[in-house]
Design brief:
The chain is built from 15 helices and 16 strands. Bound molecules: S-adenosylmethionine.
Length: about 400
């Protein structure tokens, strides 16, 4: 069994009694599922339950998650300038004829929605589609309190994909939260799953299903054979997700923002321990079996697999650029300067810090990418052109 799934010496603050009791309820539900399946579930099924089991999973339960009180921060939590820049891109697309509606997947705390609605007065509708019933309630509370009634009434919460959507689709840090399979090469490929040993969750390996095996073999056929003891994740959700999205869109521009790599980097022989990480109270480690329901579990995005899935589903790719370039090309520095003119020294320092975190290569600027595509629309997106690079 690979050894990387541990807390890497990171000291995790022990959860309180209520949190532990919550986690134990989820563990019991997972053990129940393991027994139903004859002693083992794939890691993808474990991750699905750990994050999304109704009422118990990390995203389904009422823990803080985002921001200082939670487990991690995302770009809209770091600075409203993130949503401002996306809003500039939205305005440019709408001015060229894209539909004046947004469909945001996984809206988190609701901050990105507020930032975009405040920056894009021409938007007529803002749909939110989130798997988490708890987050939907949290988004409603936040947006009602922070937006004018006029802007708030543009928002609706969907429980399934719309039909004939005409507008702009956004997904910030959503694809990394999709369940993944874990594959391990030991002579032949095996898949890692979760079983139960003496009442505790434990790693188990099993012969991979055909879809996982076909996918990893086609990656090896494309990039070369991977070495023994190589372990990595595989996301088989991109294809059904993009297919369902394409079917629901009449005309659309889609912007996917996330951390990830192109496939040659994702499955580089030297990256032999995968990219699975867990966030627990701002500590980052790689033991997904610890404190289920109390910590986030994520895997980096394979952007080539996404692009292939999107093209097969009927989208036309526009391109992919690092987040830093995308934000700079959509007015990040100009907005920072405008905000600085209106603020005192402490606030100016905060704005400068936010610009650096969002855009510097060693911060979020390179690790996060923006992947853009469209369906039945052909619009200019200068921010997606690599030769227009800044910084
Ligand atoms: C890491 S959080 C990101 C939240 C937010 N976009 C942000 O940037 O702060 C992941 C979000 O994606 C949602 N999510 C994951 N898979 C989803 C899917 N297939 N459809 C809709 N929402 C999804 C989760 O419920 C959660 O709100």
């Amino acid at each position: 069994m690979p050894t990387q799934f541990n807390t890497q010496g990171v000291e995790l603050p022990p959860p309180g009694k209520t949190a532990l009791a919550h986690s134990s309820r989820l563990v019991q539900a997972i053990i129940g599922r393991i027994e139903q399946r004859g002693g083992l579930i794939g890691f993808d099924e474990y991750m699905q339950m750990a994050l999304y089991e109704p009422g118990l999973g990390y995203y389904s339960a009422a823990t803080p998650k985002f921001g200082a009180q939670g487990d991690f921060v995302t770009a809209p939590e770091i600075s409203p300038m993130f949503g401002f820049c996306l809003g500039q891109q939205v305005n440019a697309l709408v001015a060229q004829g894209a539909g004046a509606g947004i469909l945001e997947f996984g809206a988190g705390s609701g901050k990105l929605c507020a930032q975009i609605l405040n920056s894009s007065p021409g938007l007529e509708q803002y749909h939110i589609l989130d798997l988490s019933a708890e987050l939907k309630q949290r988004q409603k509370r936040y947006l009602r309190a922070h937006l004018s009634a006029e802007l708030f009434h543009k928002i609706d919460w969907l429980s399934s994909l719309p039909t004939d959507f005409d507008g702009i689709v956004l997904a910030n840090e959503v694809l990394d939260a999709m369940p993944v399979h874990i594959l391990l090469k030991q002579g032949d490929w095996a898949e890692l799953g979760v079983g139960c040993d003496g009442g505790k969750l434990s790693w188990q390996s099993f012969a991979p299903g055909k879809p996982s095996l076909d996918a990893i073999r086609s990656i090896e056929a494309r990039l070369g054979e991977l070495p023994d003891n190589y372990c990595s994740e595989l996301n088989l959700n991109y294809s059904p997700w993009f297919t369902a999205l394409a079917e629901s869109c009449k005309r659309a521009v889609v912007l996917i923002i996330d951390y990830g790599y192109e496939q040659a980097h994702y499955y580089h022989p030297a990256r032999s321990r995968g990219s699975l990480i867990c966030h627990y109270q701002h500590r980052v480690h790689s033991d997904p079996l610890i404190y289920p329901g109390l910590q986030d579990i994520t895997a980096f995005v394979d952007f080539d697999a996404c692009a292939d899935a999107a093209e097969n589903a009927g989208f036309e790719l526009v391109g992919m650029v690092p987040q830093g370039r995308f934000l700079l090309a959509n007015g990040l520095l100009e907005e920072a300067q405008r905000q600085s003119l209106e603020s005192d020294t402490a606030a100016q320092l905060a704005v400068s810090q936010q610009v650096q975190t969002l855009s510097l290569p060693q911060e979020m600027g390179e690790k996060f990418k923006v992947l853009a595509m469209h369906k039945n629309l052909s619009l200019e997106m200068p921010a997606m052109r690599r030769e227009r690079a800044y910084g």
